[in-house]
């Protein structure tokens, strides 16, 4: 009898618990997800989202979805339910709440090829520690005392090979410039030396795999990239062992500095060096190529640039006449390049080297009237904000003058919505170096050359990495020295 009562009482408690839970669920408000489409099972809408399009647009997929659903919509991308944001306010909110409400979350294939210790995929304290190392080596004081001189040296090295009335691939030349600079800056590799050229060849193969479909089968670009990654890492490891054997007290390159001043493991150092080579070379070279592309169609901007840089060069000549020695660009000269900074800002806004970022919601988030469920992928689309006609007047036009004041831009302050280097705690550590590279390259370019597109014209495409499929070939003419 007592046994039966015990069983009945247990069943009563179970039923009571189920009723209570059901009532609690009814009291909870249903999630108010943004409108949108989840697409095909498993594939979702990923294939349509990644379809290549011209880089100074947001592409047909984004245009159609924003028109149909608004600037915030749901989808299924990269194998996960996703909230896509083309909203300036939400994008800023996401980036400013990194580590609190959202977290970096790139597809597994990216970590597989860049390495699990790559700064791009790391989160939390480990990312912070890696970023501090990068910031220490890319500090303002180092930019002024060391890197400015190196950037100018490598700029002149590339441009000195351009002959009068020749046709060159601006994209290849930009990549040569940034690769040589980063290779010397990170590992003290001299441009043109066999080991540098060998590393460059492996790196090109590696990069083709980074931007390809992650199909790890024999003969695929991804498989070849993984093989090149192994060769590159062995190369870096040899250089690392040389630093340790030499026991040099002070090193000029990043690899030597990290070996001497950090507690990172060998694997962590290898991934850090590879990720910095990737970030420092790829984004800057694309930005310089975009500047050359946009400027060739805007002669008035080239003329104003040339006037600005002639003034700087004339002042340098006066100093050179007094001392009898060639004078390098100084930090004060760089700060005088005001219109150049406008051109750089407009290039980054219109070209959008970084199209979107990968994030994940760490908890349920409410933004305005919409819910973002915990665990969902979140894509802040930077390009959509930079090309938003409600924020920028004629956003698809190259207009560097919009950055000189508020008369040319629709927004009260256009810089409020500019995030070419991301934002928040993950703001790109090399952003200032990238702008320095662009400014110095533009300085010597406009002083020494005229250029125009060849008959076989090229357009920048987003794959989603920005690239000129034909190499951006241009005809160059040397200017006579006055």
Query: Major sheet: size, sense and barrel closure?
Result: 5 strands, mixed
| Cα distance spanning the termini | 112 Å
Number of strands: 13
Strand order of the largest sheet: 2-3-9-6-4
Which value, in Å, is the CA radius of gyration? 26 Å
- Which structural class do you get from the secondary structure elements? alpha+beta
Number of helices: 17
* N-to-C series of helices and strands: HHEHEEHEHHHEHHHHHHHHEEEEHHEEEE
Q: Catalogue the unreliable spans.
A: 406-411
Overall shape: it is globular
Helical fraction: 40-55%
SSE layout:
Layout: H1 2-27, H2 46-49, E1 53-54, H3 59-69, E2 72-77, E3 80-85, H4 88-96, E4 102-104, H5 108-114, H6 124-137, H7 140-159, E5 166-169, H8 170-187, H9 194-210, H10 221-246, H11 254-261, H12 266-296, H13 299-323, H14 331-335, H15 338-351, E6 359-361, E7 365-367, E8 370-372, E9 377-380, H16 382-386, H17 431-448, E10 449-453, E11 461-462, E12 466-467, E13 473-478
Parallel strand pairs: 3-9
Antiparallel strand pairs: 1-11, 2-3, 4-6, 5-13, 6-9, 7-8, 10-13, 11-12
Concise structural overview:
This protein has 17 helices and 13 strands. It has about 475 residues and is an alpha+beta fold.
How would you explain this protein's 3D organization?
The structure is a single chain. The chain is an alpha+beta fold and 482 residues long. Helices cover 54% and strands 10% of the residues. Strand 7 (365-367) and strand 8 form a beta hairpin. It is globular. Mean pLDDT is 87; it is low at 406-411.
């Amino acid at each position: 009898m007592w046994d039966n009562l015990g069983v009945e009482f247990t069943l009563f408690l179970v039923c009571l618990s189920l009723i209570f839970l059901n009532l609690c669920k009814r009291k909870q408000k249903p999630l108010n997800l943004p409108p949108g489409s989840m697409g095909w099972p498993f594939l979702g809408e990923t294939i349509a989202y990644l379809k290549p399009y011209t880089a100074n647009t947001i592409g047909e997929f984004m245009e159609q979805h924003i028109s149909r659903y608004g600037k915030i919509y749901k989808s299924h991308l990269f194998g996960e339910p996703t909230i896509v944001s083309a909203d300036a306010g939400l994008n800023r909110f996401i980036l400013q709440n990194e580590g609190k409400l959202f977290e970096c979350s790139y597809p597994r294939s990216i970590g597989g090829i860049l390495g699990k210790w790559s700064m791009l995929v790391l989160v939390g304290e480990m990312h912070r520690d890696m970023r501090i190392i990068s910031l220490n080596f890319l500090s303002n004081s180092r930019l002024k005392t060391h890197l400015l001189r190196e950037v100018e040296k490598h700029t002149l090295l590339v441009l000195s090979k351009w002959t009068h009335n020749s046709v060159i691939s601006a994209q290849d030349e930009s990549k040569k410039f940034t690769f040589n600079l980063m290779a010397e800056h990170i590992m003290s590799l001299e441009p043109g030396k066999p080991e540098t050229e060998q590393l460059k060849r492996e790196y090109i193969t590696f990069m083709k795999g980074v931007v390809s479909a992650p199909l790890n089968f024999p003969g695929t670009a991804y498989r070849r990239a993984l093989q090149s990654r192994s060769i590159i890492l062995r190369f870096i490891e040899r250089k690392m062992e040389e630093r340790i054997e030499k026991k040099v007290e002070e090193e000029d390159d990043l690899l030597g500095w990290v070996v001497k001043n950090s507690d990172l493991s060998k694997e962590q150092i290898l991934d850090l060096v590879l990720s910095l080579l990737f970030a420092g070379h790829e984004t800057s070279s694309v930005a310089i190529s975009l500047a050359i592309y946009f400027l060739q169609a805007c002669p008035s901007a080239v003329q104003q640039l040339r006037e600005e840089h002639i003034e700087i060069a004339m002042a340098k000549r006066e100093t050179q006449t007094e001392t009898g020695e060639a004078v390098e660009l100084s930090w004060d000269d760089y700060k005088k390049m005001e219109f150049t900074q406008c051109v750089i800002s407009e290039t980054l806004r219109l070209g959008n080297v970084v199209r979107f970022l990968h994030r994940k919601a760490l908890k349920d988030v409410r933004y305005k009237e919409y819910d973002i469920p915990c665990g969902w992928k979140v894509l802040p689309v930077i390009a959509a904000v930079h090309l938003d006609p409600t924020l920028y007047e004629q956003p698809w036009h190259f207009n560097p003058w919009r950055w000189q004041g508020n008369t040319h831009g629709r927004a009260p302050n256009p810089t409020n919505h500019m995030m070419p280097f991301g934002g928040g705690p993950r703001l790109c550590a090399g952003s200032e170096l990238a702008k320095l590279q662009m400014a110095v390259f533009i300085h010597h370019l406009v002083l020494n050359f005229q250029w125009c597109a060849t008959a076989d014209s090229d357009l920048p495409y987003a794959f989603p990495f920005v690239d000129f499929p034909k190499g951006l070939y241009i005809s160059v003419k040397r200017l006579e020295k006055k």
